[in-house]
Amino acid sequence: MILSPNTTIIKQNKKTQKGVLIMALFLSNLGAAGIILTIAVMLASGFLLTRITKRLHLPNVTGYIIAGVIIGPWCLNLVPSQYIGQMDFITDLALAFIAFGVGKYFKLSSLKANGKKMVILTLFESLTAGIFITIVMLIMGLSLSFSLLLGAIGCATAPASTIMTIRQYKAKGPFVDTILQVVALDDAVSLIAFSVCAAFVQASSSNGSVTVSQIAFPVLFNLLALALGGLSGVVLSRLIHKRRSKDHSLVLACVTIMGVAGICTSLNVSPLLACMASGAAYINASGNKHLFKQLNQFTPPLLVMFFVLSGMRLSIPSLAAAGVIGIVYFLVRIAGKYTGSALGAAVTHASPEIRRYFGLALIPQAGVSIGLAVLGQRMLPAESGQLLSTIILSSGLLYEMVGPACAKASIKLSGSVPGKAAVDKAAAGKAAAGKAAAEKAAAGKAAAEKAAAEKAAAEKVIAGSSSASGPDIAKADGVEQPVHKAGAAALEEQTRKKAPDTGNDTNDTVSAQQVRPRHAVV
C-alpha cells in the first residue's frame, strides 16, 4: 500500500501527539519529582529556542516566551496544567530580584551628576505613553481598572534589546549616553506608576465606589513597604563587609530579597517597590556593585523559568479576542513613547537628534512589563485579567522583534554610528600611524646597532693599547706587519745579520724568535 504525503504527515503527527501525551502523563504521576523534571524541561526548551532566535538576531527573551508557548497547554501540552498553577512563586521571586537590580540605578551621586534633565525626559516619555494608553482604552469602552493597569504597564521599556543593539554597532556620543541613562530609570517609573494604580484598583474592587480611606490605606501600605525595603537595604550593607565571603554575601542578599518579597506578598502589597528601595538603599549605603554582579550570575536560571512560564500561560484563543485591542495598544504605546520623548526633549532643550529619533529607541518591552502583567491579572476579574496578560505577552513578542530594528534606525539617524567613509578614514589613519611607528622603530634600531659597533671597536682599541708594553713592541706596532711567510723569513734573516755572531745557532734562532713581531702570521 502506497501512502500519500498527507497520510504520512497525519500518521507522524499522531505519533508525536501520542509521545507527548505519554510524557505529560509520566510527569504528572511523579509528584515532587515531576516538578523537578518540569523545571528541567522548561530550562532546556528555553535554551534550545535561543539557538534559533540567536540566528534570527532576536533577543533571548523572545526565545524563552516562544518556548513556553510550544511546551504549554495550547501547543504540545508537555507540562501538566496542575504544575503551572503551582509555580506562582517563581514569578514573585523573579520580580523581586529584577526590582532589586533596578534599585542600583538610583545612586544619589549618579543622579546628581546627570542632573534633572534625564529625570524630566524619563517622566515625559514614560508617563505620556501610559496616559495615551489609558485614555484610548477608556474610549474603547474598557473598565477604568483595566485601562489604568494597562497604561501603567505600558510605561515600561526593556533596556536589554536597546543596549545590545548599541554594543553591536559600537555607537557612541551624547545620544547614546542619554539612551543608557533614560532606560535605566524607565522601569523604576513604571514600577511606581503601577503601584499607585494597583492601590486604586484594589481599593475599588470591593465595591463600585471609591472613598478616600480606601485609597489612603493601600498607599499607606505601599509607603510602609517602601520604608521596609529601605531599612532592609541599609541592614544588608552593614552585614556585607570586606571580610565577608562571597558565598555568605550572596546568601544574605537572597535572605533579604526573599524576606521583603514574602512580607509584602502576605500583606497583598506589590513587592516591586520594596525590593527596588532595598537595592537603592544598599548601593547608596555601601557603594558596592559587586553584589549586583553576583546576583546577575545567580539569577539567569530563575529568569529563564519566569519567561518560559509566562509563555506557557499565554492563551492562544484569547489572541483572537484581544486582536483589535492588542493592535491598538501596540500602536498607541509607540505613539506615546515618541511624543513623550519629543516633549521631554523640548522642555529640557535637548538636541534636535533627541527630539526626532529618541522615541524609536524606547520601543522594546519585556521583562518588568511581563511581571507586572502577571500581578495585574491577579487584581482583575478572570476574563479581564486574561485579556491583560495576553495583550502584554503578544505585544511583547512583537516589540522584541521590531524593537532592535527601530533602535538601530535611531542610533544611525542620530549620527551615533560612524559611516563607511569615517570608518575607512579612521582605518587608513591607523594604518599610516602604524607604518610611521614601524619605520621610526627600525631607524632607532639601526642607530642603536651602529652605536654598539662603534663602542665595541673603541673598547677593542683600548684593550690592545693597554696590553702592549716596551719600546720594541710599540715600535713594532707602528710598522706595517708582514702577513706572508716570505716576509717573515726576510725579517728573520735581517735580524740575524744585525745580531753578534756567537756561533750558536740555537741562540740565533731564539733571538730571532724573541724579536719576531707578535702579530706575524707563519
TrEMBL record:
Start and end residues of each Cation/H+ exchanger transmembrane domain: 48-393
Keywords recorded for this protein, A-Z: Membrane, Transmembrane, Transmembrane helix
Polar residues: bias regions: 503-514
Transmembrane segments: 20-49, 61-83, 89-106, 118-140, 146-166, 178-203, 215-238, 250-283, 303-332, 357-375
Region (Disordered): 464-522
GO cellular component: membrane
One GO process term, biological-process aspect: proton transmembrane transport
Region forming the signal peptide: none
Topology with respect to the bilayer: Multi-pass membrane protein
Primary localisation category: membrane
Molecular functions per Gene Ontology: antiporter activity
Compartment(s) where it occurs, according to its Swiss-Prot or TrEMBL record: Membrane
Protein name: Cation/H+ exchanger transmembrane domain-containing protein
Lineage: Bacteria, Bacillati, Bacillota, Clostridia, Lachnospirales
